[in-house]
Amino acid sequence: MSKVYPIKQPGSVQLVTACCYKDHALLRDDRYKQFVMEGLSFMVAQQRIWLYGYVLLEDEFHAMWQQRPPWEKANVRQPLLRHIARRIKYDLRATDPGALELYRSHLADRVFQFWEKQKIRVEITNFSTAGEMLENMHQAPVHSGLCRDQTEYPYSSAWFYGDRVPPEDIPVPELTDFSIAFQQPGSRMVQPESGRVRKRYIRSRGGLLLPKPPHRKFPGPEGD
């Protein structure tokens, strides 16, 4: 069920992308996907963000959120990525030290790096664009061969907008219908296979959300 919150700053909705270091399929491991889900759940529970949607792929994840007062100007993404990276590092150190070496960094401020240091963040200022981007997010696992029906993929918010039950045994973060952010009637408007959504592709390193191979003009988020 979506919940109605007093959105005080419509227009500050953001699409945030985190790309895995050197295109490694770090999130192919479902345990690491769960680390991301738990991190998003924590951000919502601590009232740092309203979370409108997300999708976790093998080498990147996308989240659509709006930062809540008094966190509007804070860099909430970097602590999230750092926390996830730390958990992954400890797990790899205990279970596969050889794989951990793939993420050894040449940067002076860290030993290992799990996320690309550059940033990808898009400000979304209207209801229509938000709906189009959510649909593209939800279709990405289908296009990449991870599922046939977007609402059945457990690591995205498509179940929420498709009026399905939450995935079991996964720490699903609490979601808010994105229509509320733009003062629109609650609608669950993203309709799979409706043919009514214009393609407005998210620019990402992985290319799954792009109509053609990506030109890496937009930087990706900071690492651990």
Description:
- The protein is of the alpha+beta class and 224 residues long.
- Helix content is 27%, strand content 12%.
- The protein has five helices and four strands, in the order E-H-E-E-H-H-E-H-H.
- The chain has helices at 30-45, 77-95, 97-100, 127-143, 158-161, and strands at residues 13-19, 49-56, 60-67, 120-124.
- Strands 2-3-1-4 form a four-stranded antiparallel beta sheet, sandwiched between helices.
- A hairpin with a 3-residue loop joins strand 2 (49-56) and strand 3 (60-67).
- Residues 1-11, 187-203 and 205-224 have low confidence and may be disordered.
Based on the structure, what is the oligomeric state of the protein chains? single chain
What helical percentage do the residues reach? 25-40%
| Structural class based on helices, strands and sheet pairing | alpha+beta
Low-confidence stretches: 1-11, 187-203, 205-224
Shape descriptor: globular
Q: How much beta, percentage-wise?
A: 5-15%
Span between termini = 34 Å
For the report, how would you describe the main beta sheet?
Answer: 4 strands, antiparallel
Please count the beta strands (DSSP E, at least 2 residues each). Answer: 4
Instruction: Count helical runs.
Output: 5
Order of strands across the main sheet: 2-3-1-4
List the helices and strands and how they pair.
Elements: E1 13-19, H1 30-45, E2 49-56, E3 60-67, H2 77-95, H3 97-100, E4 120-124, H4 127-143, H5 158-161
Antiparallel strand pairs: 1-3, 1-4, 2-3
Helix pairs in contact: 1-2
